[in-house]
Amino acid sequence: MTSNIMEQYIKNTKVFINNFTKIFFAENYNEKISNEYIDTYIDARIYNFGETSQRFFYRRIYFSLMEKKIKLEENKELDKSIVEKNLKLYQFIFFIDGVRPITDIDEFITSMYEKRLTKFELDNSRGLKERMSKLIKNYIKEKEEFSKKYETEDFSLNISKYILIDNTYKVDLDYNFKIPYIYSNEVVQEVYNEGIINEDKLIIEYILLTFVCIKDIDKGDFETKYLVDFANTLYEKQNKLKQSLRLIENPAMQDKVYLKIKFSDFESNKEMIYSLMKDGFKFAIIIDNTFSPTVINIKKLAVFEYLIVPSGIKCYEKIKNYETKITNTIIYE
C-alpha cells in the first residue's frame, strides 16, 4: 500500500525527540513523562491543537506543553522535578525542530550542554556532548533532505492563488518532459487528464503537495488551503481509490487539502463521498450543468466549504443572484 509521507515525517520527529530526551536526561529519563510531552508537542506543532490566540508559534506550542505539565503534576506517582525539567527541555527542541531559528548550531549545542550541567543540574558524562551534537546535526540534516528522495525533474506543481479568496490556492500538476511533435497539444492534454494516466498522476500530485504542506506546517502556517484534482474514474476502483487517498489520510493533510469533485459525480456517489467526509477528507464542489440552483439545493451543499462556479455553466448568473443565501466560499472561474 502507498505510504503516508506525513505520518513518516511525524514518526521521525517523535523518534528524534525521544532519543534526544533519553540522552539528555540519561538515568533521569522517564518514559511516561517523555511520551506525554511528545504527544502534546506533536498535537500542537503538527495538528495545531490547543491555544491558537498566541501571536508567536512557539508560544502556542509552549502553552499546550504548560497545560500538560499541570496535568502531569496532578499524578502523585510522578516526580514534579522531572516533570518540570522535561518541560524546560523544549526550549532546546524548539530550535532543533525549526520552530525557532538557530544562528550558529555549534554555539547552540555548547550553550545547551552548559545549561544541562548548571540549570538542569545533571551529571557530566564523557563523550555525551559529542553524542548529542551528532544526534542533533543528523536530525537537522535528515529533516532538510527528507523531500529530496521524492524530487523529480519530470513533474512540478503549479500553485496559484484564487483571486479575492484568502489563503486558498489552486493546484495543478505540470509535466516537464517533451512530447513527440506528432501529437497535438489537444491530444496530449486529453490523454494526460483522462483515464488511468489521470489517476496515476494524482499520486504524484498528492506526494509533491505533501511536502508543500509540511513546509507550511513547519512555519506554523495552518491557514493556507489547497484545492486539488480528483479522478471520477476512481469511484469504481476501490483499491486504487484507497491507494491514492492514503497519501493524504492524516489530519494535518486533511485540514489543508480539498478534493475537487463535480456536482454530477457527487449526486452519483453521495454515499461514498459522505463516508470519506466522515473519515476526515474534505471536498470542494464544482457546479456543472446538472445542478438546479434553487434555495433548497444550494442549502444541501452547505457541507462543502468551497463552491466552484465555472464561467461556462448555464446557471452561472442565477448562482450569483443567490450569493446572499450561500454560506459556502464561492470561487468563480
Detailed description of the structure:
Helix 1 (5-25) packs antiparallel against helix 2 and helix 2 packs antiparallel against helix 3 (57-73). The protein has 2 domains: 5-145, no CATH class; 149-332, EAL domain (TIM Barrel, Alpha-Beta Barrel). The longest helix is centred in the middle third of the chain and has 24 residues, at 195-218. The protein is an alpha/beta fold and 333 residues long. Helices cover 52% and strands 11% of the residues. Strand 5, helix 14 and strand 6 form a beta-alpha-beta unit. The protein is elongated. The model is unreliable at 179-192 (pLDDT under 50).
Question: What's this entry about, in short?
Answer:
With 333 residues, the protein is α/β, with parallel strands linked by helices. 52% of the residues lie in helices and 11% in strands.
How large a portion of the residues is in β-strands, by DSSP E? Answer: 5-15%
Q: What portion of residues is helical?
A: 40-55%
Q: SS-based structural class?
A: alpha/beta
Q: Biggest β-sheet, characterized? A: 7 strands, mixed
- Tally of helical segments: 15
